[in-house]
Amino acid sequence: MAETVSPLEARGPQAKPGGRGELGSERLITELALYRMQVELRLFEKRAYDLFLQNLVKGTSHLGLGQEAVAAGFAVAMRPDDYTFCTYRGHNHTLARGASMTAVMAELLGRSNGILHGKGGSMHLTDVEHFAMGSYAIVGAHLTIANGAAWSAQYRKSGQVAVCFFGDGTTNIGAFHEALNMAVVWKLPVVFVCENNLYMEYTPIAAVTSVKNPAADRASAYGLEPIVIDGNDADICYRSALTAYERARLGKGPSLIEAKTYRHGGHSRADPASYRPQSEVEEWLKRDPVDLYKARLLERGMQSTVLDAIDAESLAKVDHATEEAKAGPPPSPDALETNVWADGGAAWRN
Amino acid sequence: MAELTYRDAVAAGIAQEMRRDPDVVLIGEDIAAAGGVFKTTVGLLDEFGPERVRDTPISEQAILGAVMGAAMTGLRPIGEIMFSDFLAVCWDIAANQIAKARYMTDGQVNLPLVIRTANGGGFRFGAQHSQAVENWAMAIPGLKVVAPAYPADVKGLLAASIRDPDPVLFFEAKGLFADKGEVPDGEHVVPLGTANVLRKGKNCTIIALAAMVPRALEAANRLAQDGIDATVVDVRSLVPLDTRTILSEVSNTGRAFTVEENPRLCGWGAELASLIADECFYDLDGPVVRITTPHVPLPAADALEDLARPSIDRIVAEVRQAMER
C-alpha cells in the first residue's frame, strides 16, 4: 500500500524559519501535523511493545509512551535542517524528524533493513539525512555533543539550531553542567529540553535531587531563564520551541526548557513500574497528551471524521512498517567487520 | 629544513593544516591566549583568530563533546586534553561516543577529529599527571592512536591526523617537548600506520614508542660497542599498526624487545608479543622481552620516577642480559 503523508510533509509552512502558524490555514496545518505526529508515535510505540512481548524486539527498549507531545511539539517547530540529539528513549524523537518508520521498526527487530542495519539497536537510532544526529545511551554525553553541532552551526553561520532532549535524571550528572556552562559562555544556538517524567529510571527524581524542578531550578546558575512547561500539551511545546529556536537563531544563546510529562510504562522493557503509586498513574493517564489534543481540536471545531481518518491512516502506516520490518533478513555476517573506519573497513593493521 | 623543538612542531603542524583548510578549528584549556600550558599552541590565536582558536572552561567532557558534535556536522576540529591523565574524566565521550558512532550508525556519522594530549612522565608531576595511557586508547575499537618521537614526525603525523577521516588520539610526549630536530620546510605529511626503522642491525630488534624511542636508539648505540647490533623501530602509530614493518624487522634479527612507557599489564608491547608469537615464532632465537614501567602508579620523586620509566641503562642491561642468556 502507499505510504500516508508523513508528519514531516504534513507540517507545511511551519518548516520555514519563523513560521508561526498564526494565519488560520497555517494554524490548522500545524494542529493537524501535531495531532498526526502524536498519534503515529503513540501507535508505533504500542506496536513496539507488542513486538517485544512477542520476543521480536531483541535487547532492551525504552518507550516514549505518554511523552509524545514533547517530541511532536519541538519537532514540528524545527527547520528541516535543525539538529536533533536525543537519548536511548529516542524512538519518538527520531521518527518525529521524518525517519522511515519501517527502518526504525526494523532496527528494533535487529534486521538488515534497520535504519542502522542492525548495528545500533533501539538505543542508538540515528538518521543523519533528516538531521536526527543520534540517540545516546550514556546519560549526559549528548548535551556536550549537541553543543558541538551548535558550535559548528555558529561557525558556519548556517542559522541551524541544535535541539537536545534528555531526561530528568540527566540533570544530576556532570556533563549536564559542563554543557550548560559552555553553551552559555559560547552563546551557542542550542536548545536543551528536559523531559521531566518524574522518575530517574526506578527512583522518584525528587528523592535524589536538591531542587524541586531538576532542570529549571538550575538554570539561574548559568544565567538562564527558568522555564517550566506542560510537556503533555503539544501546543505549549510547539510555541515554547519556536520562542527558543528564534532566540538561538538571533544569536542570543541557549535555552533550557523543563517539560513536565509522564511515562505511561516503565523505564525499560524489564520494568513494570510497580514503584509508582496507582493514584499518580491514574492522574497522569487522565492527562494523556494524545487524548488531550484530540479533545482540544474537537472543541475548536475540528471534524471528528478528519481526526478519525488520521487515526486510521496512522495505524495503517504502523501496520505497513511492521510487515516491511518483519520481512527484512537479519544482517549478513559480512557486516560485522565493516564501518569501523571511514574506508568502510575494520582493519587495525596492515 | 629548520630546527624546531618538539613543542614548536606541534604548533607548526596545526598551523600548516589551518592555513589549508578553514574547517580546521582548535579548542582546549589555555590553548588560545596563553598558548598552551606546554606552549604547544603559541601563535595560533594571533594567526587564526578567536573563532578558530578557542579557550574552553575546565570541562573535558564539554571539550570532547564539542569536538565530536562539530566533526559530525562538517568541521575538522582538534581538541586538546591538557594531560592525558584527564582523558579519564571524559573517557565516555572518547571511548563510548566518538569511537563507536560510525560503527553503530553503520557509516552515517563521520568523525574527522583529533584529540591531542600531553602524555607520559619525566616532569616529576606524580601519578595523576605523568601516565602513559596510549594502551587505554589502543584497547578501544574505533580510535586511531598516534604517538610521535621526533619533531618532524610531530608535524607530519599531526597533519595526517587532522586530514584523516577518522578520530585520532594524538599523544604528545611530555618528556620530549624541549627536544630539537630537523623539520622539513613547506608542506610535510607523514602517513599514519607507518613504522620507521631508525637503525638497521643484525642481532636483535628493539621496538619503541614516543619518549622511549630516543632512549632505545641511544641504547642501541651503546650495545653496538659491546658487539650487539640492534635494529630500532619507531612504532609511531599503534592504530593502524604497521605490522608488516615490525614483524619483518623481528624476523630479520630473530630477537624482539619492546620498550614501553605504559605500565606492564596490557601494554602495547603485549599485543606485539602476541603478534610476534603468532606470526614470527619460527624465526625467533629467543623469547620476546618487554621492557616497561613496572605495574605501579608513577611516583613523583625524581629518583623513583627515573627508576620506573625504562632508562637507557635499563634497556642496555636488559637487552644484554637476554642476548647473553
Most extensive interface, chain pair and sizes: A-B, 53 and 47 residues
Oligomer: heterodimer
Task: Give the terminus-to-terminus CA distance of chain B.
Answer: 44 Å
Q: Spans of chain A with pLDDT under 50 lasting ≥5 residues?
A: 1-22
Structural class of chain A: alpha/beta
Query: What is the helix fraction of residues of chain B, given as a range?
Result: 25-40%
C-alpha-based Rg of chain A, rounded: 20 Å
**Which percent range describes the beta-strand content of chain B?**
15-25%
The string of secondary-structure elements of chain B, in order, is EHEHEHEHHEHEHEEEEHEEHEHEHH
Please state the average pLDDT score of chain A.
93
Helix content of chain A: 40-55%
Structural class of chain B: alpha/beta
> How many E strands of chain B?
14
**Percentage of residues in DSSP E strands of chain A:** 5-15%
Number of helices of chain B: 12
